[in-house]
């Protein structure tokens, strides 16, 4: 019974709910052979807006970019979405966040850069956020 409950918990986290999330622990990393070789903590947090068909990353006072996405299964042992710019977003339950892999040369498995959004929290509608689908508007 415990094993079944553990599997269901993993599945629930693998599919992010639509909404606005925030991470105040954002790390830029250089990657080689799918392993972090450097890690730099950023001084500002980041917003992550999740739609059923895409995702947008942005910082306070900035617009950010929306990317359509498609679920593709596993990449580096994590549930993964392929973005319209050929980057990948992986769900990372061990960091309570997501991995954003980008910048590659000809090999979709060997990305050079990674942004880790750790300890993300969902921003509730009580804080005045209403999802309207207009990703070009600054909030």
Main sheet?
A: 11 strands, antiparallel
The helix content, as a percent range, equals under 10%
Low-confidence stretches: 1-13, 133-139
Total beta strand runs: 11
Succession of helices and strands? HEEEEEEEEEEE
Major β-sheet strand ordering: 3-2-10-9-8-7-6-5-4-1-11
Structural class: mainly beta
Strand content: over 45%
Care to describe what's here?
With 139 residues, the chain is mainly β. It has one domain. Helix content is 9%, strand content 51%. The protein has an eleven-stranded antiparallel β-sheet, with no helix packed on it. A hairpin with a 6-residue loop joins strand 5 and strand 6. The longest helix is centred in the first third of the chain and has 13 residues, at 2-14. It starts with a helix and ends in a 17-residue tail after the last strand. 22% of the residues are buried. Residues 1-13 and 133-139 have low confidence and may be disordered.
Structural descriptors:
disordered C terminus; 1 helix; mainly beta; 139 residues; eleven-stranded antiparallel β-sheet; globular; 11 strands
Outline of the structure:
This protein is 9% helix and 51% strand.
Task: Map the helices and strands.
Blueprint: H1 2-14, E1 19-23, E2 25-32, E3 35-41, E4 46-51, E5 54-58, E6 65-75, E7 78-83, E8 88-92, E9 97-104, E10 111-118, E11 121-122
Antiparallel strand pairs: 1-4, 1-11, 2-3, 2-10, 4-5, 5-6, 6-7, 7-8, 8-9, 9-10
